[in-house]
Amino acid sequence: MPFTETLPPHQIVPCSNLSMSKTQLHRTRPWPGFPTSKALGSFGDPNCMEQLLVYCANAIESNDATLAQQILWVLNNIASSDGDLNQRLTCGFLQALMARAAKTGSCTMLPAMANATANLAIHTHKFSLIELASFIDLTPWHRFGFTAANAAILDAIEGFSVVHIIDFSSTHCMQIPTLIDSIANRPEGPPLIKLTVIGASEDIPPMLDLSYEELGTKLMNFARSRNVEMEFRVIPSSSSDGYASLIEQLRVQHLVFSEEGEALVINCHMMLHYIPEETISIIQETNSAHYLFDSSPTPSLRTMFLELLRSLDPTIVILVDEDADFTSNNLVYRLSSAFNYLWIPYDTVDTFLPRGSKHRQWYEADICWKIENVIAHEGLQRVERLEPKSRWVQRMRNAKFRGISFGEDAVSEVRSMLDEHAAGWGLKKEEDDLVLTWKGHNVGFATAWRDCVDAGKDHSVSAKVEFELKASKNTQKDVLVEQEEEDVQHPKINIWKRVLLRRLRECHKGSSFRVSLPHETLEWVAERYRELMSKTWFAVFWKAAVPPKISFFMWKLFHDAIAIVFAVLIRQQL
């Protein structure tokens, strides 16, 4: 469905049959010589439908009620929620445009249209656990990512006795049971699995009719049945701030409580595109932060998120997502991009679900939710912000990650999985990455990454470790602590050195703190850090010490500087 050059609406050659349930728009022909509703059956060309949607979007944005009414009249007669592929696709976009007009008030529409929007509410289904598992198995849309990711994860965690999995997934841990099965069969025996999931506040399809606490209990019982020891933890967090609270908790947990021989796996399955891609500036640092989107040169939330992920020193990062671009601030461009991508799920559903089935209604309701979010919403409410593979690859490389190629076993497993589905599904390998296709069109991608700085290097370091901590401009005092000791191999030194240097070297210029510590002192600092974090009075001091207009990224760096310097100062008093 290529994007085509648009024509004026009165010149569009007839493009099939939508009836707005309950409430109809005016049936008067919108312009002289326009074909009757009976003659609209020849409006079957998807390019024509796309042109009409584009003109309707332009009319709504320019507050041209007359033209919008005319085009809506046409769309109302050629799109049907139970028609063919093109009719159902167009119907979804028609509903989204009407919702946008009603929501934004950008176009003073006719009362008939306003009434019609009341009947267009999208009713997404809340799945039981069994329903969701069956629903996901219907199509490779998610199974492709599950299969590729699990194969890469199994290779990465070989030899580790503890595996901590951070699951950024929109499918409520549906990937995990298969991974547990595979881990249980390791020749050397299964590791301890620590599973951390995101308790997102946003209701995004597919939705689960089960609390995450209940889900965790079921997963741990399943793991126990496979003789795998498993811990489950939920951390509430939101994509609107780049999962900042989650990353902060993970950072403390991993740096202070991680065990030797522990692998950290970050599994991102169709979740990262919910993070706003714009640059963000915090204008007020309170418990409920207020954000202002701007075009300043500071990093975007997605960039900061990826850099913070790297600071966790992960063993492997899996990034799976849909291969499309929904990020434009221009409604028309976004509409065209979505129209030329979202025909795919409408087309695939015809191959595995009969018309009138409940599963088909649920499936298409989720697509309509996505369309409405892309078209009708703006700001933080517009969470469907897909980026193409090429842009995510560039983001990961900019964050100093290095791509890992999927092995032949992974490719073979994905191909075997695709053989279980319709013939239209295909697989491409592009350099290190895997791409899922439908009839030759890109659908989604799977990529695997690790820290390019640490790849293939020996992690042993000297016990004498120097940190140069750049504190705020108000800091007046230098602290120098020097102790000598023979070289040792100690994981915590490596973690603190790489993470703190990486994050703190970019902080605001000011007084320097040079700290040279052996590993016993680092252990002490870690212990004090943990104790201090648990004290309410210290949390109050922490927030009070943050400059009121410091940027989000700078605040994170300042946060670390205060932690280590405060701990060292206490050490000097003992």
Automatic annotation (TrEMBL):
Chain spans, region SAW: 376-450
Keywords recorded for this protein, A-Z: Transcription, Transcription regulation
PROSITE patterns xref list: GRAS (PS50985)
Superkingdom classification of source: Eukaryota
Source organism of the structure: Tetracentron sinense (Spur-leaf)
Region (VHIID), start-end ranges: 132-197
Protein name: Scarecrow-like protein 32
Record-stated family: Belongs to the GRAS family.
Stored Pfam families: GRAS
Motif VHIID: where in chain: 163-167
Presence of the UniProt keyword Zinc in the record: no
